[in-house]
Specification:
324 residues, globular, 6 strands, alpha/beta
Length: 324
C-alpha cells in the first residue's frame, strides 16, 4: 500500500505518540514523491525541534550520509562516521537520527557496515533510509526496516531553472544557423546555468555553516568544526551533482516529448512547449530521436564514471544538437 507523505507522516506521528515507533524505516517512492521531505518531518518530530523539514538536516543530532563522491556512491567511511556520531550522547538531550539518502547507492562494504548498525541500533536513535529502487538493496537490509511506500506524485511544474533551460532549448531550435558552432554555444549556455546553480547552492550551504559555527564554536573543539566544514563541502558537491542530473533529465524529457509527439501520445512532460517538440517531431525520424536520447543517457553514465564534465557535455551536445 502506498501513501501520500501527509498520510504517512500522520501514521508515524501516531506511532510516535504511542511510543511504538520502530528503530528503522525504509522510505520508498519514485522521484518527486516526497521521500526527503518525509524524512525531514520525521527527524523534526523525534528531535522535538522547531526547525523546518528542510533545515532539520543541519541539526546537531541529525546525521546524514548520501552519495557525495564523484561516483555518486555512499562509501564505508560515511557509514562509519554516522555510526560513530549515533553512538555518542545526544547534543541536545533528545533522540538522534541517522538518515541514508539514496540508500540504493550504498557500496557493498558500506552496505555490510550499515547492516551491523541495523542489527544493533544505537540507543535512543531512529534510522531512516530513502530509495526509489528498493529492489537494489540487499534482503538483509530490507528485512530489518519497516517499509513506508509513497505514492507516485502528481505531475509538478518545472522549476525556474528548468524553465530557463526549456526556453533555451526552444530558442536554440528557432535559430537559422545549425552545426557544430551553435551546438558548442549551447554547451556554454548550459555550463553557465550549471555555474549559477552551483553558486546558489554554495551560498545556501555557507549560510547554514556560518550559523552552525557561530552557535557551537564556543562549546566544541576545532577538530569537530573541521569535520563539519568537510561535511558541508561534500554536501554542496552532492547537491550540485543532483541538480546537474536534474537538468540533464530535462533535456532527456524534451526529446522524449518529441518521441511522444511522433507516436501521437497526448500526455507530454512539457505541454507548454508542445509546439516546439511537435515541430521537431516532423524534422527527425524516430530512429534519429532514439539516438539522441541514447546520447543523453550516455552523458549521464559518463558523468557517473567521473569523465571530465566539459568533455562529456561537448561530446553529448555535438551528438544531440549539431545534426539539427
Amino acid at each position: 500500500m502506498s501513501f501520500t507523505p501527509t498520510v504517512a507522516l500522520d501514521l508515524l506521528r501516531r506511532a510516535n505518540d504511542q511510543q511504538r515507533l520502530a528503530h528503522a524505516y525504509l522510505i520508498c517512492g519514485p522521484q518527486g514523491s516526497g521521500k526527503r521531505e518525509l524524512a525531514g518531518h520525521l527527524a523534526t518530530m523525534v528531535t522535538a525541534s522547531s526547525a523546518s523539514a528542510s533545515s532539520i538536516f543541519q541539526h546537531p543530532d541529525v546525521h546524514i550520509a548520501e552519495p557525495e563522491s564523484k561516483s555518486r556512491r555512499i562509501v564505508i567511511d560515511q557509514v562509519r562516521a554516522m555510526e560513530k556520531e549515533l553512538q555518542m550522547r545526544s547534543s541536545l538531550g533528545g533522540k538522534k537520527v541517522g538518515i541514508l539518502f539514496d540508500a540504493d547507492r550504498l557500496k557493498v562494504e558500506a552496505s555490510n557496515a550499515f547492516l551491523k548498525t541495523l542489527e544493533e541500533p544505537p540507543n535512543n536513535s531512529l534510522l531512516l533510509l530513502t530509495t526509489s529502487q528498493p529492489e537494489a538493496l540487499p534482503d538483509t537490509i530490507l528485512s530489518r526496516c519497516i517499509a513506508v511506500t509513497l505514492a507516485t506524485p502528481a505531475k509538478r511544474e518545472p522549476t525556474a531553472t528548468e524553465l530557463q533551460l526549456l526556453n533555451t532549448l526552444r530558442d536554440f531550435f528557432t535559430r537559422e544557423t545549425k552545426g557544430i558552432a551553435p551546438a558548442l554555444g549551447l554547451v556554454r549556455e548550459f555550463q553557465q546555468l550549471l555555474a549559477e546553480t552551483k553558486q546558489a547552492i554554495v551560498a545556501e550551504i555557507e549560510t547554514v555553516q556560518d550559523d552552525e559555527i557561530a552557535r557551537y564554536k564556543q562549546t566544541t573543539d576545532g577538530e569537530w568544526l573541521k569535520d563539519r566544514e568537510e561535511h558541508f563541502k561534500a554536501l554542496s558537491e552532492a547537491r550540485y551533482v543532483q541538480e546537474r542530473f536534474g537538468l540533464i533529465a530535462v533535456i532527456l524529457n524534451w526529446w522524449a516529448d518529441v518521441l511522444r509527439q511522433q507516436s501521437g501520445i497526448d500526455q507530454l512532460e512539457y505541454p507548454a512547449f508542445a509546439d516546439a517538440t511537435a515541430k521537431l517531431a516532423t524534422q527527425f525520424t524516430t530512429p534519429q530521436v532514439l539516438k539522441k536520447i541514447a546520447a543523453i543517457e550516455d552523458l549521464r553514465e559518463n558523468l557517473e564514471r567521473n569523465i571530465q564534465e566539459v568533455l562529456a557535455l561537448e561530446v553529448a551536445f555535438l551528438k544531440v544538437f549539431a545534426s539539427v
